[in-house]
C-alpha cells in the first residue's frame, strides 16, 4: 500500500514555513541609499582605473586606494540597516570628492554623487515619515 498517504507525510514541520523578514519592511531611505552606493561603486572603480592610466600617482596607490574605497562602499551597502551607517555614507561622499585632488574630474563626479546622496537622505526620510501610521 505505497499509494496511501499517512498523516506523517502531510504534516510539515514548523521550521519549513517561510520566515518573515527581520526588521520589518525596508525603508525608502535605505533602498535609495543602496542604489546610489551601488552606482557610485562602479564609478569609483572606473575612476581608479583612470587614475592608474594617467600615471599621476604610483600604481599601488591608485589601484589600492581605489580598491579600498570600493570595498568601503560595498560594505556600507550591507550596513545600511544601522542608523550610524548614514553619517559614514556622508564621510565616504567627502572622500570621493577629495579624490578630485588626484584626478580633477572627480570633483565634479563626487559632487554629483554627494548631491544624489543628499537627495536620497532628505526625500527618503520624508517618504518614510509619511508612510508611518499616525
Give the class from helix and strand content and strand pairing.
Answer: mainly alpha
The low-confidence parts are: none
Let me know the average pLDDT. 87
Instruction: Note the run of SSEs as H and E.
Output: HHHHH
Helix content: 55-70%
Distance between the termini: 60 Å
Rg, Cα atoms, Å: 22 Å
Helix count, per DSSP?
5
Count of strand segments: 0
What kind of sheet is the major sheet? none
**How many individual domains?**
1
Shape: elongated
The protein's oligomeric status is: single chain
Strand content: under 5%
Account of the 3D structure:
With 134 residues, the protein is mostly helical. The model has no long low-confidence stretch (mean pLDDT 87). Helix 4 runs antiparallel to helix 5 (105-131). The protein has helices at residues 7-10, 28-54, 59-79, 85-98, 105-131. It has one domain. 69% of the residues lie in helices and 0% in strands.
Short description:
By secondary structure, this protein is mostly helical. Helices cover 69% and strands 0% of the residues.
Q: What layout of secondary structure does this protein have?
A:
Layout: H1 7-10, H2 28-54, H3 59-79, H4 85-98, H5 105-131
Helix pairs in contact: 2-3, 2-5, 3-4, 4-5
Protein name: Allophanate hydrolase
InterPro entries: DUF4233
Keywords: Membrane, Transmembrane, Transmembrane helix
Amino acid at each position: 500500500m505505497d499509494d496511501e498517504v499517512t498523516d506523517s507525510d502531510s504534516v510539515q514541520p514548523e521550521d519549513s514555513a517561510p520566515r518573515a523578514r527581520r526588521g520589518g519592511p525596508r525603508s525608502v531611505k535605505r533602498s535609495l541609499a543602496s542604489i546610489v552606493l551601488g552606482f557610485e561603486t562602479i564609478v569609483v572603480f572606473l575612476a581608479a582605473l583612470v587614475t592608474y592610466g594617467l600615471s599621476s600617482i604610483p600604481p599601488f596607490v591608485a589601484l589600492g586606494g581605489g580598491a579600498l574605497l570600493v570595498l568601503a562602499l560595498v560594505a556600507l551597502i550591507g550596513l545600511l540597516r544601522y542608523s550610524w551607517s548614514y553619517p559614514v555614507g556622508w564621510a565616504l561622499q567627502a572622500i570621493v570628492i577629495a579624490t578630485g585632488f588626484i584626478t580633477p574630474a572627480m570633483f565634479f563626479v563626487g559632487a554629483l554623487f554627494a548631491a544624489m546622496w543628499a537627495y536620497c537622505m532628505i526625500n527618503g526620510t520624508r517618504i518614510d515619515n509619511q508612510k508611518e501610521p499616525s
